[in-house]
Amino acid sequence: MTPAPESTLPVAGAPFDLEESLRLAQEASLRLREATTAEAAVRAVLDWDGAMADQQTWSASQSIRFRQDTGDEKARAAKARLDASAAALAETRRVFLATLATVQPPLRAALADRFGQAVLDRWACELRSFNPAIGEKLAEEQRLQSEAMALTGGARVDFRGASLTLPAVAASLTSPDRETRREAAAARWGWFAEHRETLDRQFDDLVKVRASIAAELGRPSFTELAYDRMRRTDYGAADVAQFRAAIEEHVVPLVERIRARQATALGLDGLSIFDEGVQGPGQSPTPGGDAPWMEDRASEMFRDVDQTAGTRLGELFDRMREEGLLDLAAREGKGAGGFCSFLPSLGVPFIFANFNGTAGDARVFTHEMGHAYQGFSSHAVLELGDQRRCTSETAEIHSMSLEFLSWPWMELFFGDAAPRFRAEHLAQQIAFLPYGCAIDHFQHLVYAAPDATPAGRHTMWSEVEQRYLPWRDWGDIPHGKDGAAWQAQLHVYQYPFYYIDYVLAELVALQLMELSLRDPAAAWASYQRLCDAGGSKSFRTLVQEAGLGDPFDPEIVRGVAERSGATLTALWGEPGAAS
Q1: In a 10 Å sphere around its CB, with 0-12 CB exposed, 13-18 middle and 19+ buried, how is residue 196 labelled?
Q2: Bridge partners for 339 per DSSP
Q3: Maximum CA pair distance of the chain?
Q4: Are 103 and 35 in contact (CB under 8 A)?
Q5: 3-class secondary-structure state, position 352
Q6: Phi/psi of residue 339, each to 5°?
Q7: pLDDT for residue 575
Q8: What does the DSSP assignment read for 131-147?
Q9: Residues 35/41, Cβ–Cβ less than 8 Å
Q10: Is the CB of residue 334 less than 8 Å from the CB of residue 165?
């Protein structure tokens, strides 16, 4: 098995004096309560923030070490300690936030002037999200999430005589050979079918503990609590429902046309589920080398971006390579998925991925590098961690936009196949929008009926899938036909109600993509402003101040769908393409 790369990241089980860190945070909260001047209040907040940075760095590093090798006993033990500490960590924040709520208006105004009203609004969301009474249930939720992660991270799939990880077998879903794709889909979904009851039980346990937490906090359902957990301050469930309706009206028909074109290009009467990842005949673009080779190309790309666009992407990337802050290659026992974690005490990000040799590797890599660059940029200009830390729909703008802004350099990875990569990338991102809405709508249904049976939840998904993904054909794959395909979406287990944030961010990223085609300098300038601003303002305010349209406006959704469709036609080089 390929080992995890050497890194400056703290090792699993590295010593950390949690009690002392908690004491320092509590002391800062006490000083905030006793503050009589703006200077004293600001100093207390900054000291509390320093303690939080140490806790977040420890927490992130232990989570990363666990995901690097979910079977490692030391990493498991360290993650278990972290899970058991969840209540104490949350209580530290709650004590501070509760103290903040008692601060006299003049001092609160001074804090808002120093750190921004958006930060105080998000802190209010957090305060509503926790109470000491839910400590044990919160720890149980963390334990259940780790259990689900370990199950999928340790999955092995028998495929054509080899025992492969789930990411490895998924690579064959883009094979130009249809029979290979069919067998890969059958093998992958066969694993989920084999473990369906366990996955249903894990999710049922999570839904019930989350509903119980919400009830303990006096919420009508977990949905309202989840929105506060996500620190959403300038939109709610009704806005999201309107947004999903706009996607259904303006984007679903566009994706139906994309799928019809795919079928024609592949010489098929219609697409099966295992055809959706292939846009046309022949081999889809794949990177010219493995993870180390891609790192070399990326270093060249980001250095050139620094020269042409005035960013610090190359500087950051080279530092991450030198300090072992990249773990990109898939291997046995490694947790699924990809992510970026920022380590505030160290001032650096860490990127985790599972490369499988497909075009998706370049997308995952640039996506996570976008997160990394935002953390790095805002860390340099904003003093408070909660100013730098974005709500997730804002954070996903940085990641998804960098996928598009890096288009001019894709020849480094794909050579002559780069034009096809760009067309397929855009088609896939447009097609993602209805899927993201389906996942979000499903979760709203689930938490509106927390006592539903697993079979009832499968029915919910089938109905949602038919609404947002009417072209989907599962053929002879029973797991999908039975409405259980949502089980493959890790976010449903780990990060409830997160997924719509990708869709919201994509609407903004597509606007930046269009701007970059007309005025690259303006697009990069807008992107840098967003990265520097971090989470210092609310989502809709940040988008507006970057000169971009509000994705909750149905007319913005309509315009993005029309322009993106025209751009895709141009990339395909078809008659009538927009210039």
Answers
A1: middle
A2: 352
A3: 75
A4: yes
A5: strand
A6: -165, 170
A7: 41
A8: -GGGHHHHHHHHHHHHH
A9: yes
A10: yes
Q: Which residues pair with 342 in a beta bridge?
A: 349
pLDDT along the chain (579 residues), means of 10: 66 77 90 96 95 91 90 87 83 86 93 96 90 88 90 90 90 92 96 96 97 96 96 96 98 97 95 93 89 95 96 97 93 86 93 89 92 97 95 95 97 96 95 98 98 97 97 94 95 95 97 97 97 97 96 98 96 57
pLDDT of residue 560: 98
Report the C-alpha gap between 411 and 297 in whole angstroms. 10
Compute the distance between CA of residue 368 and CA of residue 349 in angstroms, rounded to an integer: 10
Whole-number Å distance between alpha carbons of 169 and 165: 6
Strands 348-355 and 326-329: parallel
List Cβ neighbours of 3 (8 Å cut-off, separation of 6 or more). none
Residue 485 tokens, joined: 């395909």
CB 181, CB 530: distance < 8 Å: no
Query: Quick one: pLDDT at residue 365?
Result: 87
Torsion angles phi and psi, residue 233, rounded to 5: -115, -20
CA triple 210-214-219, angle to 5 deg = 150
The neighbouring-strand residues paired with 162 are 159
Report helix, strand or coil for 203: helix
Long-range contact pairs involving 62-66 (C-beta distance under 8 Å, separation at least 24) = 62/10, 62/12, 62/13, 62/14, 63/341, 64/9, 64/327, 64/341, 64/350, 64/352, 65/9, 65/10, 65/11, 65/12, 66/12, 66/146, 66/335
pTM more than 0.85 = yes
Nearest one of 161, 145, 15 to 80, comparing CA atoms: 145
Q: What per-residue confidence (pLDDT) applies to 578?
A: 36
